Fold:
Amino acid sequence: MLQKFLCLCAVFSMYATAYTQNSFTLKGNVYNAKSLEPIMGVTIFGEQNMTISSSEGSFVLGPFYKKNTSIRISHIGYKTQDITINFSSSIENLKIYLKETTNSLKKVELHGKSKNRLYEESPLVTYNVDEDFLQKNRENSLMQTLQNIPGVSTINIGSGQSKPVIRGLGFNRVVVVQNGIKHEAQQWGSDHGLEIDQYGIENVSVIKGPASLLYGSDAIAGVVDIQPPKIPHIHSFTGNVNLLAETNNDLLGISTGVQSRKEHWFYRARLTYRDYGDYKVPADVINYNNYVFQLSKNHLRNTAGREANASFSLGYIARHIKSETFFSNVNAKNGFFANAHGLEVRTSDIDYDRSNRDIDLPFHTVNHFKVLNNTSIQQGMHKISIELGYQHNHREEHSEPVAHGYMPKPDNSKERIFKKSTYALNLRDEFKPNDRNKLIYGINTEYQDNNIAGWGFLIPAYNRFTTGAFAYDHYELTHDFHLMLGLRYDYGTIETKEYVDWYETPVHHGDGTTTNAYVQRAKNKTNKYGNYSASIGASYIANNTKYKLNIGRSFRMPLANELASDGKNYHMYRYEKGNLDLDPESSYQIDVDFDHTNNLFRVCMSPFVNFFDNFIYLNPTANYNNTENLQTYEYTQAKVFRAGGELQASTTLFDKLTLDGTLEYVYSRQTSGPKKGFTLPFAPPLSGLISANYEFKNTRFFIKPQLTATAKIVAAQKEIVPPEEITNGYQVFHLSIQSDVQLFKNLAPVTIRLKLNNVLDTKYFNHTSFYRLIDVPEAGRNISLSMTIPLNH
Structure:
């Protein structure tokens, strides 16, 4: 299957090459007609493209597809020239001489819509961040970097891993998309992070609310859409080196990326390596479930890790076609806090405090390999997009081999192994019959092959197939009033595989006899699901105020762990039991967005109301597993009502001081089922973020130095689902300084950032953290120093 996929990629690349032949490129220099000195910054317009002259006055413009064409040369203070070019003649290097003038330039009109304008016209509540935001907020993982977005939080697993949560919902209810293809790993697990290298990412869009219409069944709560970087300029070579060091976990990291383009062909490449030790918390004792765990020098033992990532892409761009094939491999090894993965460490011979950089048992290793191809073809009023993807996720969880219940002591440390291969195909046609109407329709298909191994069982092997067809219409009633209506139908199957214990367990019979047997934990079963998603929305732009309204219905198919889990989850101290009779989740949601901006301030409100008619969750019961006295948790369903939203405000004072504030809240209530009247697990509390940014004047080597102070204020979370505990409120403060530094006169400036997180070394608990369940506080004070060195040519 992989060879077929690579062949398809090659076919697309060859088609892209064959699609455009006999193209022409124009090279030249621009000079001052009087002084004959080269002119830098001159804009040269072609019929389909443009470029700017270099410091030597040189330029390259193209490609051109006609032998006869016209170009326009324009620069402030010079008379604009229009030149006709005939490529049938020999043109080695065109020399252009501009005459100085005091007359104003004629207005040049560019027709089209910016990316921000397109987002404003979409009824979906979307928050977009650029490369500047990502660099300023850089943390240890991509989702920790994005957690300052209103409505976005994380489930943190130590210092190097995290999972996205949008408005209180996470796991497989939030889709992460990279370059158009859904990222597929083991996201069902609370201790499974996101295997994506955050370096090299330029733009991320976060859709808050149901997005199944566009992205399929798992996007019932929202989407984190990691978009492809911009195509490099013609005849360019750029790159950067990112260096990072942190004090809390002694992290050292480096990431180097380069990209280059000739005329049609371009490439990108990046290498990233990070190595960190056990992180420190403002506590020397952890008290959980009547057990006291002593910490050495405040280190949360065995939370060290390593990460090595590599990516490469090769692309082709021409007048009507663009194609890029992306390869990436993310490899990580991370330790788990020893006392969070079973109590056997009390008698272990491992010296966990020997070194804060050791990765001892228990730990996991993850390798995620990905091949994606994105091809778009412009044919008249149609833009056809083809997206192909192959991913392989290999995750191993290693634990100290210890006999549990009737299970004898294993002969190795491989407790659980998951191997997941995913094949994806997206086809989409964007049809624009006129300037006001845009009809988009297409299909998404995905197939997953999941295999398991190891001596511990939690979920069975399974195969999952999903396919969906959708269509939506975006119509411009007026320039500022837009409507969108869409419908989608999805069909899917999940086939769980039989699993039988590798050891015998005593089975008690009704006649009083007892025999030993290999217990069956899972059976062969195929479940089929089909349902529809729909959305209707409107957006209106009135001068400085923007209004959005979107009403959507989404659904989600159950996962293998929800249907067929039947095993001991030692690091969660529980026995998990699935339910093969679960129905798909259905969600109905209304989203409203109001955004007003003027010269003094900006205010944005995004309320929502949401109803689930069969929400799936893991319910703690009064039953205990009879072999090891672990509490049994069963997957069940309930009706759930949710409401909440985000409030943002910002203003600029004295042209240098910017103040920002956000407030977010989610209310959840189960209206049926065994936990009727309770909220949902991992429900985020009311929280706010206040920040002040001051930009100083340039001084000596420092360009646009900025000082940012941030205060995060979180209320107590008393709305819990037992066995969750009430989490007290807290206030935590952060400081950061950033500046571009001109180290060398003829080179681009270096960007330096100095951050101080948790300035007061506050001891606090994050209610949505994985380690909150065992009363582990968040990381203590941390100083990080990062540097971005450009490699522009």
User: Anything to note?
Assistant: The CA atoms of residues 99 and 560 lie 72 Å apart. The longest helix spans residues 2-19.
